[in-house]
Amino acid sequence: MKKRLARRFGGFTLIELLVVVLIIGILASIAVPYFQKAVEMSRVASVIARGKAISQAQDRFYMQNNRYAPTVDALDISVGPCPAGFSCYEGSMANGGYYSIHRSGGPFGYGLIFNFTLRGYGQSGGRIYCRGPRNSPKSVEFCSSWGEESPLSDSEYIRVFIE
3-state secondary structure string, 38-49? Predict the structure, then answer.
């Protein structure tokens, strides 16, 4: 009678369940880094849109006043607060001619710099670049995904032009 019940209500063995869990774990470990990078790229897309809007507003401000605006509040646009997980720096908008947004959370640590003048760091106006510390493999991998490393990179930071 016991044999009949065992065959009728047969199930998976512990080994079979462990193999399935192992396969799912391996697939997840392969997929998670790609998912993280895709999520990070979508965050960057919104940050780039913000930076471009600020750069264009700076161009308009410069044409009207023959100088760059010192803060985002002085511009003719409303961009709202800095996106979550990012730090926005306006300190060099008027003097250095650039606006930067740095990633401050998660495994990625990098900065996106929006340059809108010929002054400052030897860059040409209107350029956007990704800058990350060389001692952070995730930062180097992320910035490198945008293209070739710039010759303006230094020993501490990688610099890759986005546009």
Answer: HHHHHHHHHHHH
